[in-house]
Automatic annotation (TrEMBL):
Pathway of action: Porphyrin-containing compound metabolism; protoporphyrin-IX biosynthesis; coproporphyrinogen-III from 5-aminolevulinate: step 1/4
SUPFAM superfamilies: Aldolase (SSF51569)
Active site: K194, K247
PANTHER family named among the record's database cross-references: DELTA-AMINOLEVULINIC ACID DEHYDRATASE
Protein family according to the UniProt entry: Belongs to the ALAD family.
Name under which the protein is recorded: Delta-aminolevulinic acid dehydratase
GO biological process, one term: protoporphyrinogen IX biosynthetic process
Organism, as annotated: Rhodocytophaga rosea
MF terms in GO: porphobilinogen synthase activity; zinc ion binding
Highest taxon of the lineage: Bacteria
Record carries keyword Disulfide bond: no
EC number: 4.2.1.24
Subunit structure: Homooctamer.
Length: 325
């Protein structure tokens, strides 16, 4: 046998030398949940290890993560039911929970990079991402609300906005609006290929944001489709996106690869709540090694072509890396 592939696996030194894929905490974005009040951290039952934080507590959490090398955070608000309405008015309240939180974090921890969420669902009494009329989710009519939301966030100090409803024309509309208002340096991460997935369940528990009727299949993509992702990516690229995202991640590695091969923008992947919960549940049952499963899952997303990973494992992964030296 002239060819013995095992020779390149013979020791940890050789294995490390030939290793093709590496992942650093600086490539991770940590999604975090903000709730009203003070001095509270509430664990989300379907997401073991993940909490809703009041702003004071969130500052500590962000600080800890930054020391571990995780420096970008995707913020999501849990809005009390009384503040929800069909127009998501609370989303651009400059004195509301979310906008105040952005301002406070940027004030206290200016080096933290904040990605803010531009979508109606956390604030909508319908639990949908867009304006609802006669049971229909409206596309264009929602833009004005998203615009107000994005500007409020930019004014509060957002570094990256993430229009997560992923409907049509979001990127171009928001890019123009931000530019007109002087926010040329606020980046946009497009939720380019976001699928109508069953794996968002725990996230909707965290925000209590499940749709009150129907599902999201008229706006999110059909899990059966991949070529459509190229159309979505073309549009987001042309409209000025800075990053193209695929969501979920682990079940959509082929889509990550497809976009990475066809576009020169950095590709991000959202390792979603249900993907997190699956690994946590199995490891809590002693059915697999949670740390190893986490590291392998994240590495596979990177190997597929994602440069950036949004993951609830961000802090735990960074801790593991630090412990391993
Ligand atoms: N704007 C919707 C939104 N923003 C983030 C997530 C899911 C994230 C996750 O599951 O981790 C979703 C999905 C949805 O409810 O349709
Ligand atoms: Mg699109």
């Amino acid at each position: 046998m002239l060819r013995r592939p095992r020779r390149n696996r013979k020791s940890s030194v050789v294995r490390a030398m030939v290793e093709e894929t590496t992942l650093s905490p600086s490539e991770l974005i940590y999604p975090v949940f903000i709730t009203e009040g003070e001095n509270k951290t509430v664990e989300i039952p379907s997401m073991p290890g993940i909490h809703r934080y009041t702003v004071d507590k969130l500052l500590d959490e962000i600080h800890t993560c930054m020391e571990l090398g995780v420096r970008t955070f995707a913020l999501f608000p849990q809005i009390t039911e009384e503040l929800k309405d069909s127009y998501a008015k609370e989303s651009h309240n400059m004195n509301g929970l979310y906008i105040k939180a952005i301002r406070k974090i940027k004030e206290q921890l200016p080096d933290a990079c904040l990605m803010t969420d531009v979508a109606m669902d956390p604030y909508s009494s319908d639990g949908h991402d867009g304006l609802v009329k006669n049971g229909q989710i409206l596309n264009d009519e929602t833009l004005e609300i998203l615009g107000r939301m994005a500007l409020a966030q930019a004014r509060a100090g957002a570094d990256i906005i993430g229009p997560s409803d992923m409907m049509d024309g979001r990127i171009g509309y928001l890019r123009n609006l931000l530019d007109d208002e002087g926010f040329i340096n606020v980046s946009i991460m497009a939720y380019t290929a976001k699928y109508a997935s069953a794996f968002y369940g725990p996230f909707r528990d965290a925000l209590e944001s499940a749709p009150k009727f129907g599902d999201k299949k008229t706006y999110q993509m059909n899990p059966a489709n991949s070529r459509e992702a190229l159309i979505e990516a073309d549009l987001d690229f042309e409209e000025g996106a800075d990053f193209l995202m695929v969501k979920p991640a682990l079940l959509y590695l082929d889509i990550i690869k497809l976009l990475n091969q066809n576009f020169d923008l950095p590709i991000a992947a959202y390792n979603v709540s249900g993907e997190y919960a699956m690994i946590k549940a199995a490891s809590r049952n002693g059915w697999l090694n949670g740390e190893k499963a986490m590291a392998e899952a994240l590495l596979s997303i990177k190997r597929a072509g994602a440069k950036i990973i949004l993951t609830y494992f961000a802090k735990e992964y960074a801790q593991l890396k630090k412990n391993l030296g």
